[in-house]
Each structure stands twice: as C-alpha cells, then as structure tokens.
Design brief:
Mean pLDDT: 85
Shape: elongated
CATH architecture of the largest domain: Up-down Bundle
Strand content: 5-15%
Radius of gyration: 25 Å
Number of domains: 2
Strand order of the largest sheet: 2-3-1-4
Helix content: 55-70%
Number of strands: 4
CATH topology of the largest domain: Multidrug efflux transporter AcrB transmembrane fold
Structural class: alpha+beta
Length: 313
C-alpha cells in the first residue's frame, strides 16, 4: 500500500502508451472485422514477401495484405477484391487471379492453397459492433455484480478500473507488437474470445482479494485498525494463492503458445499476456483503489453502529 502510487504511475504510463498506439497505429484487423477473402498459402521454399505483395497488387488492382504465417514459406493473404460479390463465379475469379499472382513470383517455387475464408462487409461490420458491445456490456455487468455482492460502490469501481486497465493494455500490446513479432496479431473473433476470458479471469482474482478484505473488515475490532493495514493484510493473505493459480495457467498457456500451432498462436498469446496483466491489476490496482476511493474512511464504519443497536437491551 505504501508504494501504490508508484504502481499507479506505472499503470497510467502503460495505459497512455497503449492508448496512443491504438489511436495512431491502430490494429491489423482480421477478415472477421474488415471483410474480404483470406487464404493460407504454402510454397515449397521460402519466398520474398514484397514480391508476392507487388504481384498481387498488380493483379487485383487493390492493396493486398500479405503476412508470414508460421514458417517463412507459409503466407496469409487477405484481399478485398470483389468484396461485395459472394457468388461462386466471383470466388472462382478471385482464386484464379490469386494463383496467377502467386505463380509469377517464382515459377520454380510451387505453391499450394491450404485454406480460405470469406466474410462480406455487412457481416464484418455487424461482427465488429457486436464484439465491441459484448466487451463493454461485460464490464458493466461485472461492476453491477461486484456492487450487489459487496454492497459498496468502491468495490465496484475498483474492479472496473482493474478490468478496463487490463483490456486497454492488452489492446495496446496487440497494436504495438503487430508487425514486430514473428506471428499474426490480427484482431478477430478469437481475440474477442480471449479478451472476454481475460476480463473474467481478472474479475475472479479481484473477487478473491475483495472477499478476504470484507472478511477482515467484518471482524469485531476491525474499525480500530488502519484501513491501509487491513488492505495490505488482505492482499498478502491471498498473494500465494493468486500467484500459484496464475503460474499454473501461464505454464499451460506458454506450452500452448509454443506448440499449439500458428492458427491459435495469437489467441494463446492474448490470454497469456492477459492473465499476467490481470494478476498484476488484481494485486496492485483493485484493492488499493478501494482504499483511495474511501479517502481514509474505514470500510467497517457504519457496521459497528448497527451491531450496537442489535445488542442493546
């Protein structure tokens, strides 16, 4: 508790950097959110990324998104060519042009299309709005649940602060690291599932700390103790449980991230980072925020008066 303002400052700086990257650099949107056709292509040998992109741009007369997908000879290609058309003939035309552009890179380096995905623009817009709504609604529901369970608005706001902190930093990392790390960090439906999972995990960890804090506050002589000491005691008494649980999940996610394959690497990375950030916020931000929101007023105040009324003859 004595060093909480240092941790507040670290979190504020991290949130500002994340927000700056979100609003300036933005994200690499998956086909779920931007619409179009995405193909996973594998060459026999490693291939020049820029050569593939240039050839496909010339063929489609549109900017084509080309990324390494796993191994250096495997690519993920997204195009918005004929995005409004969903007929079989349009699909065939796009596929023919794709094969034409891929073949021009190196005639001796054969390619194979492993998979494809198609999402129309109206569906992509609907998915994007629903994903945003689900994240906002989940935070509101969590805040309401905490308020109902603990009967004090400071708990609810503290949990909301920690949850929003986790979501912004996770989004910021996906924006900052996109194009830097050697795997895809597209924002798609898998990422939405990951961020909702992180929110749930963060809240669960926060509730454990809050439960212990409420337990200590309800003790007969709790009002005689400094609230900062009570909060410290609550955090320390749950610290080993929180860290052990988090490490267990982190170890499993690390294995999934390394050996799980390229398709789910972005998803496992999101949850891995989210669990680490969520553990940090539940220890460093949630309970200390309750202390500062109370402005020195003890959580036990008001309870002793009620108890006195009950025992009075």
């Amino acid at each position: 508790m004595q060093k909480r303002k240092i941790f507040y400052a670290i979190s504020i700086v991290a949130v500002i950097i994340s927000a700056a990257s979100i609003f300036t650099k933005g994200f690499s949107l998956g086909v779920d959110f931007q619409g179009g056709r995405t193909y996973t292509v594998r060459y026999d040998k490693p291939v020049d990324l820029e050569a593939v992109r240039t050839n496909l741009d010339d063929i489609f007369k549109k900017t084509t998104e080309v990324k390494v997908f796993g191994a250096s000879n495997q690519l993920r290609i997204t195009t918005t060519y004929h995005i409004e058309e969903t007929s079989d003939s349009a699909d065939k035309e796009v596929l023919d042009k794709l094969n034409q552009g891929l073949s021009k890179v190196d005639a001796s380096n054969k390619h194979e299309i492993l998979s494809s995905q198609k999402v129309g623009p109206s569906i992509a817009t609907d998915i994007k709005s629903r994903a945003t709504s689900s994240a906002i609604f989940s935070i509101i529901i969590v805040a309401a649940y905490i308020l109902i369970r603990f009967h004090k608005w400071e708990y609810s706001v503290g949990a909301a602060i920690a949850t929003i902190h986790d979501a912004i930093i996770l989004l910021g990392l996906f924006s900052i690291l996109d194009g830097i790390v050697p795997f895809s960090l597209d924002i798609d439906q898998h990422f939405v599932a990951a961020i909702l999972t992180v929110i749930a995990y963060s809240v669960n960890d926060t509730v454990v700390v809050f439960d212990r804090l409420r337990e200590f506050v309800s003790k007969p002589n709790a009002h005689n103790e400094d609230l900062g000491d009570v909060v410290n005691h609550a955090i320390n008494s749950t610290l080993s449980r929180t860290i052990i649980t988090s490490l267990t999940i982190v170890f499993v996610l690390a294995v999934l991230f390394i050996f799980g394959g390229e398709v789910i690497r972005g998803f496992s990375f999101a949850i891995l980072i989210g669990v680490i950030v969520g553990t940090y916020s539940s220890i460093i931000l949630a309970a200390p925020s309750v202390y500062d929101l109370r402005k020195g007023k003890h959580l036990a105040e008001g309870n002793t008066a009620k108890k006195a009324e009950v025992v009075r003859p």
